[in-house]
């Protein structure tokens, strides 16, 4: 059984907050590649910032997601990913037509259940690492919600509830379907 669980969906939809809660509960978590890249780029030359060169940013996110995937392979227990390879590859495909999502998805599989945070305007905020507007976040969500099923993933939409309830929802779904 694949124990790598993707939390994806709308930017500003509560993914990072949910991952932090799962981490507090003792689960292994992997921070979003995009946020880590932005922090690195802000400290460096900034050439791969998403608002400077989105394709370079997406390529770096793909590389980082592949490394993250390999780093937790064969680890016991669930590992929760704040976004991952499919999100980065989908962004690059949207921009340039590359890469082959089916090949990447097959080479670096996650659990077939992916949890999506829906657009939630009431909690959406911009910050130094997230400069795009809510409508852009919704468009990204729509692309991801369409792409995941074509790759064989079962999309599970997270309810718009407090973070503890969301974490319970994820863990309950995983335990129900693991039996």
From TrEMBL:
Gene3D superfamilies linked: P-loop containing nucleotide triphosphate hydrolases
InterPro entries: NadR/Ttd14_AAA_dom (IPR038727), P-loop_NTPase (IPR027417)
Domain NadR/Ttd14 AAA: 5-166
Highest taxon listed in the record's lineage: Bacteria
Pfam families (alphabetical): AAA_28 (PF13521)
Listed name of the protein: Hypothetical conserved protein
